[in-house]
Amino acid sequence: MIIRNNIPLAPLTTLNIGGPARYFVEAVSEDEVREAVLYAEERRLELLVIGGGSNLLVADEGWPGMALKIAVRGTIKEVRARHTIFIAGAGEPWDAIVDHAVLENCGGIECLSGIPGTVGGTPVQNVGAYGQEAAETIAYVRVLEIASGAVLELDNSNCAFAYRASIFNTTGRGRYIVLKVAFHLANSGRPRIDYADLKKYFAATAGAPTLRQVREAVMAIRRAKGMLLEDAGAGDEDRHNAGSFFKNPVVSAGEADRVQALAERRLPQIAMPRYSAEHGMIKLSAAWLVEQAGFHKGYTLGPVGISRKHALAIVNRGGATAREVLTLKEQIEQRVLDVWGVQLHPEPALVGFGDCGKTRAHP
Predict the structure, then answer these.
(1) Sign of dihedral through CA atoms 20, 24, 27, 30?
(2) DSSP code, position 237
(3) CB 234: neighbour CB atoms within 10 A?
(4) Which of 109, 150, 151, 263 is the most buried (most CB within 10 A)?
(5) Where are the domains of the chain?
(6) So what's the architecture of 244-347 in CATH?
(7) Does domain 4-72 have CATH number 3.30.43.10?
(8) Mean pLDDT throughout 82-104?
(9) Where do the DSSP E strands lie in 39-120?
(10) What is the DSSP string of 308-353?
(11) Which residues contact 182 (CB under 8 A, 6 or more apart)?
């Protein structure tokens, strides 16, 4: 284990924002993860666990304790009669796993193509897109329990998965560090094309699309929205972002009807999108609420702004500070609340802003 001092965290995040970590460790094995945790505990250092940095906003002051980057790699494939188990290290790039699964004709995560970050972040956030969620395929998560130092395997039912949530970012926040994730994928699986964007994409296609075609469609849709970070060149002012900055609000049917009635009065020519969610709830489009509250694509507030292609992506146009990102975030939240009576909640983890617990774990 190599410990480095005063390492800038901005280059380790897709927003390219954030001050330095007082101590920094990149752990490439489970033993190194355990050793780093022990080192931090013995010295009473606040521990920040990070992965790909794609869902993270770090304060300008940085992190006063130890930042632990999980770089555990490796993939094991267990082929069964009807399904295949992919067991991937938390430090593996997520999209590489999706591509591998599709190549092997294994279905279940094809709609999660093009999402930045690492495997370790998928169960933490219960990553989802275009009608699929990671929770639908996760068999178990191998974790280090920080308090005991024990390595455990938590099966799906013990992970408390919900919309963009799990035990790892709710009741068990700071209790575990993800080491590996096992995905249960269907051999020769039928692709998922339930989402409206995908249905539209394949509307003129005869027959059912293949897993590869669905992956390519998702990548094309994300590319059109400026949500493929790998495509962003040095001259793209929208390239530094954390993906969707706000979660889609999930509300009761009655609350959705209230918002829709308000929309019909204010914007009779524009249909308000709404989608069915679990337990009879309704999911509203955060992007629609933001745009119809006056924050259009390309909106600029100094060095920060909104992507020209996606209304939910707050971008660092160059030299932005974390505080400036928070200012825009708060303006958007307040305006949406004033106009629609809906409270938005950020999707990225906010780190180092004075509300940090002893341990934070983020993708």
Answers:
(1) negative
(2) T
(3) 5
(4) 109
(5) 4-72, 75-224, 244-347
(6) Alpha-Beta Complex (3.90)
(7) yes
(8) 97
(9) 47-50, 56-58, 63-70, 75-79, 83-89, 106-107
(10) SS-TT-EEE-SS--HHHHHHHHHHHHHHHHHHH-----BSSEEESS
(11) 85, 86, 87, 88, 138, 139, 140, 141, 142
**Buried b vs exposed e over 92-121: b needs ≥16 C-beta within 10 Å?**
bbbbebbbebbebebbbbbbbbbbbbbbbb
What pTM does this model have? 0.87
Q: Do the first three CATH levels of 75-224 and 244-347 match, i.e. the same topology?
A: no
The label of the residue with tokens 């284990």 reads 1
Q: Each residue of 37-67: pLDDT tens digit? A: 999 999 999 999 999 888 899 999 999 999 9
Rounded to whole angstroms, how far apart are CA atoms 297 and 313? 9
Catalytic residues: 164, 244, 347
Q: Which two tokens stand for residue 306?
A: 């909104």
Residue with tokens 């930042």: 67
Interatomic CA distance for residues 13 and 54, integer angstroms:
6
When pLDDT is averaged across residues 135-141 and rounded to a whole number, the result is: 98
Instruction: Classify domain 75-224 by CATH architecture.
Output: 2-Layer Sandwich (3.30)
